[in-house]
């Protein structure tokens, strides 16, 4: 006995997925620009609530969370270089609040940006940049384990 063929994906769903992919690509390109869910939704011709629900269903996290993860990943690269202060990195990646940046960085990476800056330079010394980026990638969709302070 054969199973029935899978039902076709409705055309509207395919259009929504294409719009979500464009939103994600925009976040990847423009992470350092002032972006918010309302602006992203307007660009995708969706309401902010619909965009948030559909983005989470497609990618497992909200557009804001995805944006902040992109910003933190870029911040990690800049902090590893060591030539910018934490405040300069915060503004360079598009964050307007040093407090929000530090809190989100600590949640994703497991340590404050100042500590990461101090430790990362020696931890990735001698590694090609592409390898350093991969091994230091922040944790996504869950908080990092708490770091014991000495």
Descriptive account of the structure:
- α1 packs across α2 (37-44), α1 packs parallel to α4 (63-81) and α4 crosses α7 (113-123).
- The protein has 150 residues and is mainly α.
- The protein contains eight helices and no strands.
Task: Describe the structure concisely.
With 150 residues, this protein is mostly helical. It has helices at residues 11-30, 37-44, 48-59, 63-81, 86-92, 98-109, 113-123, 129-135.
SSE map:
Layout (H helix, E strand, L loop, with lengths): L10 H20 L6 H8 L3 H12 L3 H19 L4 H7 L5 H12 L3 H11 L5 H7 L15
Helix pairs in contact: 1-2, 1-4, 2-3, 4-7
Topology as a string of helices (H) and strands (E): HHHHHHHH
| Strand residue percentage | under 5%
The count of DSSP E runs of length 2 or more, i.e. the number of strands, is 0
Report the major sheet: none
List low-confidence stretches: 141-150
Please state the structural category.
Answer: mainly alpha
Q: What is Rg?
A: 19 Å
Distance between the termini: 65 Å
Tags for this model:
single chain, 64% helix, elongated, disordered C terminus, 150 residues, 0% strand, mainly alpha, 8 helices
